[in-house]
Every structure is written in structure tokens, then in C-alpha cells.
TrEMBL record:
Organism placement in taxonomy: Bacteria, Bacillati, Bacillota, Bacilli, Bacillales
Record NCBIfam families: PRK11883.1-5, proto_IX_ox
Listed GO CC annotations: cytoplasm
Pathway(s) annotated for this protein in UniProt: Porphyrin-containing compound metabolism; protoheme biosynthesis
The species this protein was found in: Planomicrobium soli
Name of protein: Coproporphyrinogen III oxidase
Amino acid sequence: MEERIRKVAVVGGGITGLTAAYFLQKQAHEQGLPIHITLIEAAHRLGGKIQTLQKDGFVIERGPDSFLSFKNSIGRLAKELGIADKLVRGVKGQWSIVAEDKLQPIPEGTIMGVPTNLGAFLTSDLFSWSGKVRAAGDLVLPKAAEASDQSLGKFMRRRFGKELVENLLEPLLSGANGGDIDRMSLEAAFPQFAEVEQKHRSLMTGMKKTKAGARAAVYSRNEEDVYQTFEGGLQTLVEALEKKLSGCTILKGVKVDGIKAEAVKASLKLNNSSTILVDQVLFALPHSKLLPLFEPYDLLNGLKEMPMTSIATISMVFPESAVEFGESTGFVVARNSDFAITACSWPQQRWPSIAVPEGKKMLRAFIGRVGDEAVVDLADHEIEKIVLSDLRKMMKIEGKPDFIVVSRWKQAMPQYVVGHKKRVAEAKKELEKEFPMVQLAGSSFGGFDLADCAEQGKIAACRIVEQLLG
């Protein structure tokens, strides 16, 4: 007798959902498991926050522009998809910080905001002598007793004091996600810091000895660049994944409006007036999109405590002679500076092998963060004016850009606040009781770097196949 075909729905066509669908298809084939996969995406395109615009010879990323290469998940995936030859690694470069309205280079030897080269740290103009003395206290301070989760800001101020945190750590570690380190979960966002403290006591000593953060060293000095992208941008990965999903049903412009458990299956109500019944369903969506679906069952309430931040990316193209970069790769901005932008980079200096039309230069700036999100709602011309005003305080820019591309991400960046891992674990546990056929994965849960999301998609696919084989 022919074995029953199992039906699986993957809701969300971003990198998590795409990767999950790919590995579901692959593993089902390897296991000889008859399966039909339906990928459901509310937008009319796949890729989620990955949106690459090809314009006038430029490769412009509206969302993320790279992924952390050392996590390996996307590198391995690229090999399977046959696009490993299109991988491009960023070049090492000098990042700077705008602190108290002054542009200063990041001290050599900085790893994830932690100074490990004492000489470079002591000669840096980023800090006063009293701030340097207090930060050097990390070398003699005892390690903390292992305790429950705490904010990254609280942990770092205990180790280094206020000045180093505000002028170096905060702008580096809050990053393009616009987070607030005084709410950010140490356990969920940067567990390596607590691990280094417990093992080595001093973060300055421990980060240098173990290189625990070196591979993930955002804006580090003198380290191999840990970021990669693809020729033609990250859309290359999305297109390759979609091409491989030839055995799946892909529904674009379709939204799940409701879910109901029917015995051991899930019934999904779609906004196109249809309903599908599946054996397993993976929701690869932001938690904010999930909450309305499970509100009738009084589930996932703990996830309401996870805030979402709005940001915007602004890409500006100029004639080559109108802008002077110097040798810098870019800069980040501390909250104690009077600037609206939070970061800016020069794509052609990060990715020189990705062609920029001759005679042109491009800048990529970010605005928006916790407590300062209204700027994201301004009109394009107002944002252009603000960004140019900020940039001209730090570098030579003449005239107006040839064109700009403003990309708004409203309530799109999940913030892992203190207690994040516990809340997620409790939410998944309570969901399993009522909907054992439902899995959750994505940027709201187990890491928001693209590599983290891809890995979550693969893990979810493995779990689903195991349950179907059950």
C-alpha cells in the first residue's frame, strides 16, 4: 500500500523559512519520506528583509548587506546550492566612532568593543584619563558570582565604568539594530562575555587569550573581516534557494489569518478564502506577526514583552570628486553625540570586488534606534537633509547626491531584552501543549544574524522530519 503523503506548511519566506523548506525537501528525499511542502509568504516576493536593488550599475542592499562567515551555516548552504564561487569576503578596514561629536578611530586590538591592546587603549583620545583608569580596573576586578540574566549595559559598566561603555561599547554593540544595551539581554545577545569573565575573570585578558569574540568581532581592528556577501548581493542566495524548491508549492501574496488544531493536525485559514490541513507547520515569522494568530488561545503572551525597533537604511550615490572617504571603512555613532544617524559605511571599500560604476561613490547610512524612531517616518527629502547634515560634519561632501534609496523597516528589528531566553522557552513549551504540530523559528527567537536564522531553519526542518518519521 502506498505510504501517505505528509503535508507541511512553512509560513514566512524570509531566510529562515526558505532554508527550512530547502532542508525539509532535501531530508525527506534522503529519508524516503513522501512529503508535500507549502511555503506561504504574505509579500509578493521571497527573501524577507533581504532586498537587493540593482540600479545604474550599483548593487544596493535595502536590508542586511552581509552575514557572519564564521558561523558556517550560509557558507555550507552556498556549497549545496552551487553558489559558493559567488561568495565575497569583506576587506579589513579602519572603523571609527563618533563620541561626544568627535570622530575618533577605534583603538587597535579592540574586540567586540573590549580593548585588548593596552598601549593603543591608553593613547586613544576616545577616553579621558579618569575613564581609562576606571576601565583598566577590569584587569583586577573579581569575576561575578554566576547569576540570572542581566542587561549588557549593567554587566559592562561593572567591568569598565561609564565612559568606555558610552564611548565605545554601546555604539559598537547596539549596532545597526538600534538596540538599547540597558535592556539588552546579556544571556541571549552576548553570552560569550559572561563566559569569558567566568573563565578568565578579566575581559581584556580573556578576549585576547581566547579570541572568544574575535571571529564575531564587529568593527574589530586588525582582524580578518568576518563578513561575507555574494556577487550581485544577498538576493543571489534567495534566488538560488527558490530555484531549488521546485517540488514545493509556493504561495506569494498569501497570509495566514488563523490556525486551529484538528486532532493531530493544524488547519490554516488563508486570506484567499482557502484552508489547508497539514501534519506540521513552521512559523518563520517575527513574533509580532504570530501573536494575533494565537491570541484566541491565550498563548505566547510572554512574547509581548519583546519590543520591536524601527530603522531605515539610506544609500546615497555621488560623483567621485564630491566625496572624500579617506581610508576608513565607516563609523558608528555614540548616543552622547548630537547626530541622527547611527552608523555609516562605504560599500565599495568594504566590498571592492563588487563593482561600483566608474567615477561614482556610494554611502550607506542608518537612522533610527530605541527612543529615536520617529525620524524613520519622515519623508525621503527630509531624511536626505538630516543625513547629509550629519555627514558633512565629519567628511567632505559637496553638492547633492545623484540619487538616494531610502528603505524603511517599521517595527522590524526584535530586541532581546533581559529574560529573553526564558520567555522564549516558556512560550514554546506552552505552545507545544496546545499545538504540538507547530514549530517556531526566526529572528525573534534564536539570533537575528542571517547565519543564525539559516541555522534555525535547518534545525526546525530536522525536528519536523523526525516527528513525521516518529
